[in-house]
């Protein structure tokens, strides 16, 4: 099974959030979306700043990147 790493992306800075061995990219993407949702609760100051969770493969290739706050606030 593949290994995926997760990073919090703030501008040009990447903060390691850990890694997991998961069955496929779909599960890694689901975990990234869950992590992004959790980070908006724990770190609300990151909302609306274009922050994201970057998912990379074992080969260090970026494979997915959900935004922390994809919906604009009105």
Produce the secondary structure layout:
Elements lengths: L2 E8 L2 E9 L3 H18 L9 E5 L5 E3 L10
Q: What does the main sheet amount to?
A: 4 strands, antiparallel
- Looking at how many chains there are and whether they match, the oligomeric state comes to single chain
Strand content: 25-35%
How many distinct domains? 1
Strand order of the largest sheet: 2-1-3-4
Shape: globular
**Average pLDDT across residues?**
92
Counting DSSP H or I runs of 4 or more residues, the number of helices is: 1
Distance between the terminal alpha carbons, to the nearest Å?
42 Å
The topology string of helices and strands comes to: EEHEE
Q: What is the helix fraction of residues, given as a range?
A: 10-25%
What is the CA-based Rg, rounded? 12 Å
**Low confidence ranges:** none
Question: How many β-strand runs?
Answer: 4
């Amino acid at each position: 099974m593949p290994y995926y790493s997760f990073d919090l992306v703030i501008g040009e800075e990447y903060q390691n959030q850990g890694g997991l061995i998961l069955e496929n990219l779909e599960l890694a993407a689901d975990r990234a979306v869950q992590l992004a949702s959790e980070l908006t609760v724990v770190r609300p100051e990151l909302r609306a700043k274009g922050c994201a969770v970057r998912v990379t493969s074992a080969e260090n290739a970026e494979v997915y990147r959900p935004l922390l706050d994809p919906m604009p606030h009105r």
